[in-house]
Queue: 2 jobs
Job 1
Amino acid sequence: MEADVAYAICRMNEIPSQKARGFHLMIVGDDGNPRPWPIIVVRWGRQVFGYVNKCPHDGVNLDWERNQFLDPNGIRLMCGKHGALFELGTGNCVEGPCKGRSLTPVALAVLDDDICVVGVRLVEDEVAGDEEA
Ligand code: FES
């Protein structure tokens, strides 16, 4: 039943079009224990794409500088560690040491202009963006 819950993480207009933003969420794992679940949300016009913030190469967060997810041209996601480039809409690595592998997609939905995470169970109190400080 939890799979039907949608968790609003931010408003659509809080992420400018063609930008990405990180969120540090807590997910309830299969064993019932909470664990950190950092994700990236990319907005492109009215479309949103979500990925787990974990490089398939070394398993690190992509944003070595906080919330810097895009390459200098602003058209791909980039890992700050070794510069792997990922397509925004698919999460596929098109260049770099993990070429051919992919970011793990996160299911998102837009409901009443709220960007929501769906299909997982979150620890709700922990929903917070990176930009609050
Ligand atoms: S850890 Fe991301 S490219 Fe190496």
Job 2
Amino acid sequence: MSNRIFNFSAGPAVLPVEVLEQAQNSLLDFNGTGIGIMEHSHRGAAFCGVLDQTIADCRTLGGIPDDYQILFMQGGASSQFFTIPMNFLSAGETADYLVTGSWSKKAVAQAKRFGTPHIACTSEDRNFCYVPQEAEFSSQPKYVHYTSNNTIFGTQFHSEPTVPDQSHLICDASSDIFCRPIDIRKYRMLYAGAQKNLGPSGVTLMIVHNDLVEAGRRDIPEMLQYRTFAENDSCYNTPPTFGIFMMGLVFKWILKQGGLEAIQKRNEEKAGTLYSHLDNGNLFRATADQDSRSLMNVTFVTGDETLDKKFIAEAKEAGFDGLKGHRSVGGMRASIYNAFPAEGINELVKFMQDFEAKNS
Ligand SMILES: Cc1ncc(COP(=O)(O)O)c(C=O)c1O
């Protein structure tokens, strides 16, 4: 695959080459059926086998017990921003939100349509460059919602936030799901759009405790109720079959790498190499506070916008794509999800050293 370059895109993002090759082989003829994977009926044995295996591998990988549902929905993580409060929040009721970036702000905006979101903490005072250590919760939140990794600002919770007893913790893990082991018992719901760590865009993985599935409203459209997906094995309507298939391949790939502990070790090494260069080099600096840095999205600047632009342009020329930071932070962002190869980080650091020598 010598024509592949290093893709630092924040999402859709790099996928394991091995997974792409397996997908390629399944496009024309899946498992000797004479029908490509995308052409199989979602009610047929071939796809049902894929679905069951994907769920089984997800359970093995994440240590997800049977009292949690594993569901596949559409509409991206953004649709969860309104589906969650629509199901669990009514006028006059409160849900608590930890606001650590643009995505959690968007979730709050949607919750306002249904109830009263309470902002338990926010790091907006410093343009979201840190994860607050403290939060002030309301007295009886229906749930507590947070974003485990802030894709745009390069910050990440290093452990679950401490929430009041009995709170239903709900997590948007779109940009760091399965980057490390999870203790699912701490959550009532964890969800992620696939397009960073799990596969192609178009499918959202939902891990939801049975109690929460049951607690959802019944007077809203079926497609917006979690129980509809739980009761119909995510096949009430036509599910995103190809996305589910790809996710299954990615789960198998992570298991083959040694599972989540091995992936975490690799992610720490990869991010560590880059942060260490940012801390010790003489031109670039990381934008996130040290104790809040993300393993998945490394944001950095030179402090000079013209130089940032020059770096991004020259890096692209040299085969490092997708390094431009989000406009709300500026500078650069290296998204280095599970599938991003360590080799790409080492090459980037060399390139940065070269650039520093010429431009410092
Ligand atoms: C943390 C987080 N949440 C939500 C979203 C929105 O996801 P989607 O485009 O799947 O709606 C993103 C997209 O980048 C994200 O990074």
